[in-house]
Amino acid sequence: xxxxxxxxxxxxxxxxxxxxxxxxxxxxxxxxxxxxxxxxxxxxxxxxxxxxxxxxxxxxxxxxxxxxxxxxxxxxxxxxxxxxxxxxxxxxxxxxxxxxxxxxxxxxxxxxxxxxxxxxxxxxxxxxxxxxxxxxxxxxxxxxxxxxxxxxxxxxxxxxxxxxxxxxxxxxxxxxxxxxxxxxxxxxxxxxxxxxxxxxxxxxxxxxxxxxxxxxxxxxxxxxxxxxxxxxxxxxxxxxxxxxxxxxxxxxxxxxxxxxxxxxxxxxxxxxxxxxxxxxxxxxxxxxxxxxxxxxxxxxxxxxxxxxxxxxxxxxxxxxxxxxxxxxxxxxxxxxxxxxxxxxxxxxxxxxxxxxxxxxxxxxxxxxx
Length: 369
What we know:
By secondary structure, this protein is α+β, with helices and mostly antiparallel strands. The chain has three domains: about 1-45, no CATH class; about 90-245, Translation Initiation Factor IF3 (2-Layer Sandwich); about 275-369, Translation Initiation Factor IF3 (2-Layer Sandwich), CATH 3.30.110. Helices cover about 30% and strands about 10% of the residues. It contains twelve helices and ten strands. Strand 3 (about 175), helix 7 and strand 4 (about 200-205) form a beta-alpha-beta unit. The longest helix has 14 residues, at about 325-340. One of its GO terms (molecular function) is RNA binding.
């Protein structure tokens, strides 16, 4: 009787008497009786069932869907926060220590209208290299506000206590300063550390270590803090006695790193003051000379400028071995050495930097001036 129930959906014309049919001979694998009992108990046809409706057909289940919450768009949520305004008295740049505002680019790799702060998120216009402050800055007022936050100078005992707490390698309040130098988003990281700590430890590596004075200046100028300790490439930046985390400055974050613009060529085909043959001779002389310094990737280059100045007292050209330094870092190193030594980079080739000190009479004129 159970087998009759299974095939009751077939039409009466096509049905055959099951008493004369051996079902087991047509089934390759014997079906356990429990399966028939289970299915027949749960899906047994009733007199009201349609004979053309198979008992094992899947029926659509009506599911009660939860009411969808109204969609929240970005514009509806943050309309009251746009555009963001900041009272910081300086132009916003991607890097403050590794860019020179006096050098104007000759081209851009992306349209200047694409602001890294996002469309409509800042009330300053991005010009391709920076977002200038629209209001005029009063230096005296800025200095007064910073002195009010710093408060009275720290005593020697207070400085020693802060240095002992934050100068070690296991300090939890540390920021790594890499080849990008002091970036704009790093300012926000410093203020986040200042919420729960009086000072933050900054470890400098790579190209910025060529000019640590420049790094210290921009840290104090852009954050309003004070450098209370410096050891080679380790700095401690103090927030001030009267620092209030609730009244911290508004720092809009850059959503992506902008493409570096195109600047004038650093190495000329013919160096200033030399002919083409003399320039070629200087380059060959530099490549055949032993390297003065071997620079490593993300190393500490604090003493490089002093060593090059000392070498130029007896040599016309010097070579720096930068085999393991990235090409972009080599160009940044050449730009910094050109301004700090000063000197003239005459060759960048396979990780080798050749520097020329310039003509002797030019050096004498600079000393006399």
